[in-house]
Design a protein that fits this description.
By secondary structure, this protein is mainly alpha-helical. The chain has 31 helices and no strands. One of its GO terms (cellular component) is cytoplasmic microtubule.
C-alpha cells in the first residue's frame, strides 16, 4: 500500500510539472498576480472541512492558492489559445475548485482576445458549463463564474443572444440572494446584457423569465425590465417590444411585493412621458384590465407620482438603482483598454446601440474615470475626487442639488472610506438644510437606502445612524419613501450584526411613530409576507404599533394588510414568530372584536378561524 501511495504521489507531481510547463507565460489564470491586484480572499468552505475533489485532504494541506479575483484589465492574450481551449469545459466540470477558477479566467481571456477561433465554436456548451459553476455553493467561486459571464457578454455581444434565456433566469435568481456581493455581480452581468446584446432578444428573455414561479426571481426580473425601459428611452416607443412589455409592467403595480411595484411605477412614469404626446400610451392602456387601468390612472394623477417624475427627469435621477448604474458605468474604460489590444472577432451590429446605452448610463449619473467591479477587482485604491463646487467640501454658496450631485457620485464608490464620508455628508446636508430638503426627501432617502445593504458594516451602520437622525427630525416628511425604505430596513433586521439589527429596529420605531399608518401598512405587510424569515418576528411587533391608529383612520386597511399578514403567518413554526404573531392577533381582536373573523375580505376557512380563537383565548 505504501509503495502504491508513493507511485500515486509521483504521478501527480509529474502531471503538475507537465501542466506548469504548458501554461502560457501571460495567461489569464491566477498563477501570476498583477502587482496592484487586490489581496487574495480566503475561500469559505462552509461546513465541509475538505472541499470536493481533494480526496479527503484539507486544501491547506495541499498548499493550494486561495481564491483570487482577476480584474478584466489584468487579463492578457494567451500564448497557446487553442491548447488552452481544448480542456476548458472539462475543467469547469471538475470537482477541484482551483481548476474551475483557472478555467473561468481562461474562458474570460479567450472571450476577449481569441473568441473567433475558440469559444464561438462551442459557445452553448461553454455557457452551460459556466452557469453550472454559478450555482456552486462556494460563494467566491460563484462570483467568479458570474464575472466570467459578464466579460463574455461584454465582448461577444450579439453572439450571446441565443443564451439569454438561460442567463437571465440564472442572474435573476442570484440577484435575489442575501449575499450582497453575489447579488451585485449578478446585476452587473444583467446590465452588461442590456448594454451589449440585442435589445429585442434581452426583452424576450425577460418576458420568459417573468413567468418564473419564485416571487423573488420575478421581483428581480421586474427591476431588470425597469432598467430596459430606462436604457432604451424613447427608442422603445412604437416597437413590438413595447407591446410585449407594457401589459407586464402594468401588472407590476398590483404586486404584493414592494420591489416590482416600485419598478413598475418608475417604468410607467417614464413610458407615459415618452408616449403621451403620440397617444400610444392611451392605446396600450385600453388593452389592459379595468383594475390595472385604475392603478395606472391613480399613479399618474397623484401628486406624489408627479413629484417623483419631476425629480427623476431633472436632478440626474438620484435613485438607488441610478446609483448602481453610475458605479457600473465606470467599467466602460476598462473595456476600451482591453479592446485596443484585441482583434475584432465578433459581429458588432449592435455596437452603436451599445454605445448609445453606455452614454445614457453616463448621462444619468455616471462617474468619470476608469475602474472595475469592486474593491476585490480594482488594480489599486480609488483616489478621492478633486474638490469642486459639486463635489467634495461644500462651499457656502453651493446649492443643495450641486451638493447632492457630488455626494451621489462618491456614495457608490469602491473605497468604503469614501462611501462612509459621503453618507456622513448626506446626513449633515439633510440636517443642515431642512428648509430646502424637506419638500422632496425622496432622492436623499434613496441614497441612504442604497447603502443599507453595503458590504462594509461601518458604512451600513453609518447609513442607519443617519436615517435615525433624519427620521427623528423630518417625521412624516419621509413617508413618501416608505415603499423603498421599509423593505431595506426589514432586510437589515435579519443581519447577523447586533448593531445593524438594533439600529434598523430603532429607525423602524421612529417611522412607525411618525408616519401615516395608512401609508405604512402596505410596505410593512409586504415585508412580513415576502421578507427574510429571521426579521418576521420584529416586523410583526412593528405592525402591532400601528393597529389602533390604522383602525381609527381607515379600518378596511387593517383587515386588508394586518389581518391578512397575521393569517398567512399562522403557518410559521419559529417560536419567536409564533409569539409575535399571537400578540398581534390579540391586539387586533382587542380593537375590532369579533369582526376580525368576518371583515377580512373573504370568508376565512373554519380551520383558520379555529386557530385564531385558540390564540385569542390563550
Amino acid at each position: 500500500q505504501l509503495s502504491s501511495a508513493l507511485r500515486g504521489s509521483s504521478d501527480r507531481e509529474r502531471d503538475r510539472d507537465h501542466h506548469s510547463s504548458q501554461r502560457p507565460s501571460q495567461s489569464a489564470p491566477t498563477s501570476t498576480r498583477h502587482p496592484h491586484a487586490a489581496e487574495p480572499v480566503e475561500p469559505d468552505f462552509g461546513a465541509d472541512a475538505y472541499p470536493p475533489g481533494q480526496n479527503g485532504r484539507s486544501v491547506f494541506d495541499m498548499n493550494a492558492r486561495p481564491i483570487e479575483y482577476v480584474a478584466t484589465e489584468d487579463l492578457r492574450p494567451l500564448d497557446q489559445p487553442d491548447s488552452e481551449w481544448r480542456n476548458v469545459i472539462d475543467r469547469l466540470g471538475s470537482g477541484d475548485w482551483a481548476q474551475q477558477l483557472e478555467a473561468l479566467n481562461t474562458a474570460r481571456a479567450l472571450s476577449i482576445y481569441h473568441a473567433a477561433t475558440t469559444v464561438l465554436l462551442q459557445l452553448h456548451p461553454l455557457v452551460r458549463a459556466v452557469l453550472a459553476v454559478v450555482e456552486n455553493l462556494r460563494s467566491q467561486l460563484s462570483k467568479a463564474a458570474i464575472m466570467s459571464l459578464t466579460d463574455m457578454i461584454t465582448y461577444l455581444r450579439g453572439s450571446m443572444d441565443p443564451e439569454m434565456d438561460l442567463i437571465t433566469t440564472s442572474m435573476a435568481k442570484k440577484a435575489g440572494e442575501t449575499s450582497g456581493f453575489i447579488a451585485d455581480e449578478a446585476k452587473r452581468a444583467m446590465l452588461a446584457a442590456i448594454q451589449n446584446c440585442t435589445e429585442a432578444r434581452v426583452i424576450s428573455a425577460l418576458v420568459h423569465a417573468n413567468s418564473h414561479k419564485n416571487p423573488t426571481v420575478r421581483a428581480k426580473v421586474a427591476s431588470f425590465v425597469g432598467w430596459v425601459v430606462d436604457q432604451m428611452g424613447p427608442r422603445l416607443c412604437g416597437t413590438r417590444e413595447l407591446e410585449r412589455l407594457f401589459p407586464i409592467i402594468v401588472q407590476y403595480l398590483g404586486e404584493g411585493n414592494a420591489e416590482p411595484r416600485l419598478a413598475g411605477k418608475k417604468a410607467i412614469l417614464l413610458l407615459h412621458e415618452y408616449t403621451k404626446s403620440s397617444g400610444e400610451f392611451d392605446r396600450l392602456l385600453k388593452r389592459c384590465s379595468e383594475a390595472n387601468v385604475k392603478n395606472v390612472e391613480r399613479l399618474i394623477t397623484s401628486e406624489t407620482a408627479q413629484n417623483a417624475l419631476a425629480i427623476s427627469t431633472s436632478n440626474m435621477q438620484f435613485t438607488s438603482r441610478g446609483q448602481f448604474h453610475a458605479s457600473l458605468s465606470r467599467t466602460s474604460k476598462t473595456r476600451s483598454q482591453a479592446e485596443r489590444d484585441r482583434p475584432d472577432t465578433t459581429n458588432s451590429t449592435n455596437s452603436s446601440s451599445s454605445s448609445a446605452v453606455s452614454r445614457a448610463v453616463a448621462d444619468r449619473g455616471g462617474v468619470a474615470g476608469g475602474g472595475s467591479r469592486d474593491s476585490l477587482a480594482r488594480p489599486g485604491p480609488l483616489k478621492a475626487p478633486a474638490a469642486s463646487p459639486s463635489q467634495g467640501a461644500h462651499a457656502p454658496g453651493d446649492g443643495v442639488p450641486a451638493q447632492l450631485s457630488g455626494i451621489a457620485q462618491r456614495i457608490s464608490g469602491s473605497d468604503f472610506r469614501h462611501r462612509h464620508e459621503a453618507v456622513t455628508e448626506l446626513t449633515d446636508l439633510m440636517m443642515g438644510e431642512r428648509d430646502q430638503c424637506g419638500g422632496r426627501t425622496g432622492p436623499f432617502i434613496e441614497l441612504f437606502v442604497g447603502r443599507l445593504g453595503d458590504n462594509n458594516a461601518k458604512v451600513a451602520a453609518a447609513a442607519l445612524q443617519g436615517l435615525e437622525r433624519v427620521a427623528g427630525a423630518y417625521g412624516s416628511g419621509i413617508e413618501g419613501s416608505l415603499g423603498v425604505l421599509v423593505p431595506a430596513l426589514a432586510a437589515n433586521l435579519a443581519n447577523t450584526s447586533v448593531q445593524i439589527r438594533t439600529l434598523a429596529s430603532s429607525v423602524l420605531d421612529l417611522v412607525a411613530r411618525n408616519s401615516d399608518p395608512c401609508l405604512l401598512a402596505q410596505p410593512l405587510s409586504s415585508a412580513i409576507d415576502f421578507g427574510n424569515q429571521r426579521a418576521r418576528a420584529t416586523l410583526l411587533d412593528k405592525m402591532r404599533l400601528i393597529v389602533r391608529s390604522l383602525h381609527e383612520k381607515k379600518p378596511p386597511l387593517l383587515y386588508k394588510f394586518v389581518v391578512q399578514s397575521a393569517v398567512k403567518t399562522l403557518e410559521e413554526h419559529r417560536a419567536d414568530v409564533k409569539s409575535s404573531n399571537a400578540t398581534l392577533i390579540k391586539e387586533v381582536y382587542a380593537v375590532v372584536g369579533e369582526s376580525i373573523f368576518t371583515n377580512s375580505g373573504s370568508r376565512l376557512p373554519d380551520k383558520t378561524v379555529m386557530r385564531l380563537r385558540e390564540i385569542i383565548g390563550s
